[in-house]
Amino acid sequence: MLTPTVTTIQNQPARTTQQDLGKKDIFLKLLVAQMQNQDPLKPQDPTKMASQLAQFNMVEQQISTNKLLGQLVGAGNSTGGQSTSAATYLGHSVTVNQNQIHYDGTVQTFTATLDAAATQTRVTIFDTNGVPVRTMQLANLSAGVNALNWDGLMDSGATAPQGNYRIDISATDLQGNAVKSSVQHSGIVTAVRFNASGTELMVGGIAALPSDITEIRL
Questions:
Q1: Is residue 38 part of a domain?
Q2: pLDDT tens, 57-113?
Q3: Is residue 84 part of a domain?
Q4: How far apart are CA 23 and CA 147, in angstroms?
Q5: In terms of domains, do 49 and 150 share one?
Q6: CA–CA separation, 69 and 8 (whole Å)
Q7: Which of 46, 148, 179, 216 has its CA 20 to 30 A from that of 91?
C-alpha cells in the first residue's frame, strides 16, 4: 500500500506539467502576437527571431527534463520508501545480498557470510533448470565473511556455458549442527529498470532489488 508521502510525490509531476504547459502557451502567444503586429515596413530582425525561437526550444527541453526528473523521483520513492532515486546507483560498485551470479567465462567471485565457524561447508552451483553443475567441499570456514570463487568448471571438468547460476551453501559446525549462511556478490550497477513490480538494478548481469544492497562504493 502506498504511503501518503509517496502519493504526494507521485502527484507532483502532474501539477508541474500543467504549470509548464501554461508557461509554454504564454511564450508562444507572445511570439505570435509580436509577429502579427510588427511594422510591415520594418519587419522583425531575423536574428532576433531566431534567438526567440531558440528560447522557445529551451523552454520545451526544460519541460521534458522536469517531467523525466519527476518520473525518476517517483519511481525511486515507490520502492522501499527510499529517499533518493535508484538512478543514483548507476556506475557505482555495490555488494548485493543475493545468491544469483552471471557466468561470463571468467572466474566468479562471491562471499559466504556464516553466523558461526563451520568445519564443513558444501557449495553447490545450480543452472537455471535447477540442475547442480558443480559441488565444492570446503573445510574450516570462519564466522563472518569468507571470500570464495568459482572457476566456471563443472564437476565433469568441462567449462560451464555462459549464463545465470544459483549458489547454495550448506555449512555445519564441529558438533554437526547447521550454521546459518548467506551469499553476496559485488558488481557495477549498469542499468536501472522500472517495471510494474518495482525497481530493479542490474549488477554484474543479474537483476537485484535496491533493498538487497548491503554496501555501495565509489
A1: yes
A2: 676 666 666 665 555 555 545 544 443 467 788 888 999 999 999 999 999 999 999
A3: no
A4: 57
A5: no
A6: 15
A7: 148
Instruction: Please give the grid coordinates belonging to residue 216.
Output: 555501495
Q: For residues 126 and 64, state if they share a domain.
A: no
The residue segments making up the domain with residue 115 are 89-217
pTM above 0.85, yes or no: no
- 3-state SS of the chain is CCCHHHHHHHHHHHHHHHHHHHHHHHHHHHHHHHHHCCECCECCCHHHHHHHHHHHHHHHHHHHHHHHHHHHHHHHHCCCCCCCCHHHHCCCEEEECCCEEEECCCCEEEEEEECCCEEEEEEEEECCCCCEEEEEEEEEECCEEEEEEECCECCCCCECCCEEEEEEEEEECCCCCEECEEEEEEEEEEEEEEECCEEEEEECCEEECHHHEEEEEC
Q: Scanning the structure block, which residue is given the C-alpha cell 548485493?
A: 96
